[in-house]
Amino acid sequence: MEMTWTPGGLLVDGLSTPSASPIHDCLVAFHHRSYESDETGEVLPVEIVVRGRHKSIAWAKPRKAKTPTGEISTTLSYYKLVIGGEEIIEIDKPGYVFRVRGVDRMAERRQALGV
User: Considering the entire predicted model, what is its pTM?
Assistant: First the structure.
């Protein structure tokens, strides 16, 4: 899994923020958003949690009176998407977890491997 993202302005802390997890040993990013349904007008909270290591960092050239941006490519070891309080998907590569809408599709394999 890979994620490419553009920071809004100069990013210093996001380049070296360690995870609390010794398994992932990487950056942890939380994205909290909300979306409004065009059909119903309902506003849904969306939470995305990712863990990974930066693969490449491409800084934009600084320009007068412009916010410096760039593009960062991060290889992910963990991804979780929650919409409206419902866990939609969770992928944890080191933990060998692949859960979709609460169904753990790797549970039998972990059990067979003794993990």
Answer: 0.73
Instruction: Please answer whether residues 45 and 84 qualify as being in contact, where contact means their C-beta atoms are separated by less than 8 angstroms.
Output: yes
Between the alpha carbon of residue 64 and those of residues 7, 10, 58, 112, the distances in Å are 18, 14, 19, 59
DSSP 3-state of 33: strand
The C-alpha atoms of residue 109 and residue 10 are separated, in whole angstroms, by: 43
Beta-strand relationship, 70-83 and 43-59: antiparallel
Q: How far apart are CA 100 and CA 51, in angstroms?
A: 18
Report domain extents, the chain: 2-113
Instruction: Write out pLDDT tens, residues 13-42.
Output: 555 555 445 555 566 677 788 988 889 999
Q: Which two tokens stand for residue 54?
A: 């930066």
**In angstroms, what is the C-alpha Rg of the chain?**
17
10 Å Cβ neighbour count for 5?
14
